[in-house]
Amino acid sequence: MRVRxxxxxxxxxxxxxxxxxxxxxxxxxxALKICLESERSRQRYLAIPVRRPRACSLTLYREIADDETIxxx
Length: 73
Known about the structure:
Layout: E1 2-4, E2 22-25, E3 32-35, H1 39-46, H2 57-64
Parallel strand pairs: 1-3
Antiparallel strand pairs: 2-3
C-alpha cells in the first residue's frame, strides 16, 4: 500500500501518520492511504463527489454531436 502524507485539502504535511485520520482509496497492492490533518479535512475529502465515467468530455460530446440546436464553429 502506498501512503500519501500531504493532506489534499490543506496542502500541509501530516507529521503523525499513525494517529492521523485517513482514507484508503483502492484495494490490494495498488491501494493508497491518504493521511489527513484533521477529521474536518477527512469529512471535506469524503464530501467530494465521485466522478462518473459517463461525465468524460468524449462521452458528453457523443451525446450532443448530432444536436441541431447547438452551433458548431
